[in-house]
Amino acid sequence: MHPVFVYYKQSILLLLSLLIDTSRQYQAFDVYLFFLLLQNQPIGYIISSILATDRDTGTNGMVTYGFLNEDGTHFTLQPDGDGALLLSNFIADREKQDRYTLVLLASDGSDTNKRETPLELTILITDENDNEPFFIRLDENTAVVQFLNITEHSSSGTSTGTVNQASDLDLAPFNNIYYYIVGKFFLASARCFICSRLLVIDFCCRV
């Protein structure tokens, strides 16, 4: 018999298509799974438990696990009883790549008529607030300095202009940006200079 994946821990979506071939009397499963992995988790983080069964007995019913398209760079499998643990083997960065597609392979123990069952799954990298807001520069060598002018004796609430837009690489709500002005007034000779620093913080810092 073909090994059959039967248990998934921490999966958020499961679509199962069952095909039965009565002439050969085995079941073939096409399964698509999505798992969540929070970015910046340490190497060895357990993503999910995987378990497949085989209705054959003896050696033919012993199931081993492997990957069809993964060399261990990003993910590994660790034996766990009759099943296996799917582990991360890298520190995920959602801003660099937000998903990975894997094909797990469950194989029986036959030496003469080995049967295998693939399981396609997607690892979704979820976001955390790990990026600071920043003001957009024209180029790397240009300092973030902006001059705004206001006419003397202007009434309160007069607009002095629009500041350069800030950005945040995180996803919502962590990329909701709020602007604040901090600074002091400095007197020099007969002229008054307003020297202020614009503070930009994101959603997480604000709440």
Question: What's the shape?
Answer: rod-shaped
Largest sheet: 5 strands, mixed
Q: How many E-type strands?
A: 13
Mean pLDDT: 75
Helix/strand-derived category reads mainly beta
Structure description:
By secondary structure, this protein is mostly beta strands. The protein folds into two domains: 4-126, Cadherins (Immunoglobulin-like), CATH 2.60.40; 134-206, no CATH class. The chain contains one helix and 13 strands, in the order βββββββββββββα. It has a five-stranded mixed β-sheet, with no helix packed on it. The protein has a four-stranded antiparallel β-sheet with strand order 1-4-7-6, with no helix packed on it. Strand 6 and strand 7 (83-88) form a beta hairpin. It is rod-shaped.
Task: Please give a handful of descriptors for the protein shown.
mainly beta; 4-stranded antiparallel sheet; Immunoglobulin-like; rod-shaped; 207 residues; 2 domains; 13 strands; single chain; 49% strand
At a glance:
By secondary structure, the chain is mostly beta strands. 2% of the residues lie in helices and 49% in strands.
Q: Which SSEs are present, and which pair or pack?
A:
Layout: E1 4-8, E2 11-21, E3 26-38, E4 46-53, E5 64-67, E6 75-80, E7 83-88, E8 99-107, E9 116-126, E10 134-135, E11 166-167, E12 177-188, E13 191-202, H1 203-206
Parallel strand pairs: 3-9
Antiparallel strand pairs: 1-4, 2-3, 4-7, 5-8, 6-7, 8-9, 10-11, 12-13
